[in-house]
Amino acid sequence: MDVNAYIQFAEDKLEMHFKDISLLITAFTHRSYLNEHKKTVREHNERLEFLGDAVLELVVTEYLYANYQDQQEGVLTNWRSALVRTESISAAAQKSGFEPLLRLSRGEKRGSERARSQILANSFEAVIGAIYLDQGYEQAKKFINKTILVTLKDILNQGTWVDPKSQLQEIVQSREGFTPSYKVIVEEGPDHDKTFTVGVYVDGKLLGKGKGPSKQAGQQQAAEVALKNYL
Question: Helical H runs in the chain?
Fold first, then answer.
């Protein structure tokens, strides 16, 4: 993929003229690509991802605070979590046409769908970081508004913002007086692409199992299964 493809993407999809297009190219550069092109590529996207993550959270928090003044902090926190979770921002990256622009090693190109989803999410945050540095906060905010915040209505309508762990704990404690506990049952895969199988237990009884790329994700899925079995 040559430089012109990234310039075209910036102008067509982002509706911006980048002053430093190398920032945008870096945002699409995975660590694995750097390992295969050490002589020509000097930086991958993890620092931009770090910056973009902070900008994304600030913009979403600012929006929720300003527009939902009747909601309590706990509810707003759950809404924000639903908006910025990996699945949400990966879907936004896919919809925005990020995937063909990713610079990956040959091995990562053959990676699992779950690994690719994480790479897309990381790249999305890196692009936000690149926009912030090149175009400023307001342009980064505009991009987040049209790719992430527009999905809030569907999230609220579908109820996907509800945290299953919190919901399960509340129900179990009120009915039985116990607090659910979580335990990793199986840990599989290499360090860069692990899968955790987690069980949720109430008074020593297994209520549900879940899988995910992190212990937290596995816990969330286990709680969802437990809720279906428990209600």
Answer: 3-12, 21-27, 31-36, 46-67, 73-84, 86-95, 106-109, 113-135, 137-147, 152-158, 164-176, 215-230
Choose, from 36, 46, 49, 53, the residue flagged as catalytic. Answer: 53
What pLDDT is attached to residue 209?
94
Identify the active-site residue in 15, 20, 43, 125.
125
Together in a domain, 92 and 22: yes
Q: Which domain holds residue 119?
A: 3-158
| Domain final residue, candidates 123, 138, 158 | 158
Helix 137-147 vs helix 113-135: crossing angle, to nearest 10: 150
Residue 53 designated active-site: yes
176 and 144 assigned to the same domain: no
In a shared domain, residues 127 and 102? yes
CA distance 94 to 120: 7
The Cβ of residue 189 has, within 10 Å, a number of other Cβ atoms equal to 13
What is the pTM (predicted TM-score) of this model? Answer: 0.76
Shared domain check, 171 and 58: no
Contact between residue 121 and residue 51 where contact means Cβ atoms under 8 Å apart: no
- Residue 160: the pLDDT is 66
pLDDT digits (tens, 9 = 90+) for 88-126: 999 999 999 999 999 999 888 887 777 888 899 999 999
List of residues 6+ apart from 155 with CB closer than 8 A: 79, 82, 83, 88, 161
